[in-house]
């Protein structure tokens, strides 16, 4: 084995040892300015009785019984009680609310006999 090969192997061994050694160093804490703000952390559903024991920045109300067809149960007849309750709970916990008004009621459809993607 030539001198060049021995030096190359030694450098590779030292580099590997240093690299492995660095992986075992404790992680450094992230500076407060680099943290992601709470409103960027959210939930996709809400059960007011089981709000998590952590800060939630936002809540997306979709599969929680507040789609358009669940609010407008008959033409011109609206029931906002469940939506109001969920918004009150979110606000009481400091979370922003995103309401998705999908799920057109069948009586507003131009093709009421045709099933959509969500029934």
Describe this structure in words.
The protein is an alpha/beta fold and 119 residues long. The chain contains three helices and five strands. The chain has a three-stranded parallel beta sheet with strand order 1-2-5, with helices on one face. A two-stranded antiparallel ribbon has the order 3-4. A hairpin with a 2-residue loop joins β3 (72-74) and β4. The chain starts with a helix and ends in a 20-residue tail after the last strand.
Summarize the structure.
This protein has 119 residues and is of the alpha/beta class. The chain has helices at residues 3-23, 68-71, 81-92; strands at residues 42-43, 58-61, 72-74, 77-78, 96-99. It is built from three helices and five strands.
Main sheet record: 3 strands, parallel
State the order of secondary-structure elements, H for helix, E for strand.
HEEHEEHE
Structural class estimated from helices and strands: alpha/beta
What are the segments in which pLDDT stays under 50 over at least 5 consecutive residues? none
Number of helices: 3
Query: What distance lies between the first and last C-alpha atoms, to the nearest angstrom?
Result: 74 Å
Mean pLDDT, rounded to whole units? 79
List its traits.
alpha/beta; 5 strands; single chain; 3-stranded parallel sheet; 119 residues; elongated
Task: Describe the SSE topology.
Elements: H1 3-23, E1 42-43, E2 58-61, H2 68-71, E3 72-74, E4 77-78, H3 81-92, E5 96-99
Parallel strand pairs: 1-2, 2-5
Antiparallel strand pairs: 3-4
């Amino acid at each position: 084995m030539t001198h060049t090969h021995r030096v190359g192997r030694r450098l590779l061994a030292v580099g590997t040892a240093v690299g492995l050694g660095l992986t075992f160093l404790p992680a450094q804490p992230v500076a407060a300015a680099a943290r992601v703000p709470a409103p960027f952390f959210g939930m996709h559903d809400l059960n007011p009785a089981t709000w998590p024991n952590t800060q939630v920045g936002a809540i997306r109300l979709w599969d929680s019984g507040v789609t358009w067809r669940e609010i407008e149960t008959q033409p011109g007849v609206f029931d906002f009680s469940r939506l109001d309750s969920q918004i009150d709970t979110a606000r009481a916990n400091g979370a922003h609310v995103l309401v998705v008004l999908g799920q057109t009621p069948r009586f507003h459809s131009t093709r009421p006999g045709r099933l959509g993607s969500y029934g």
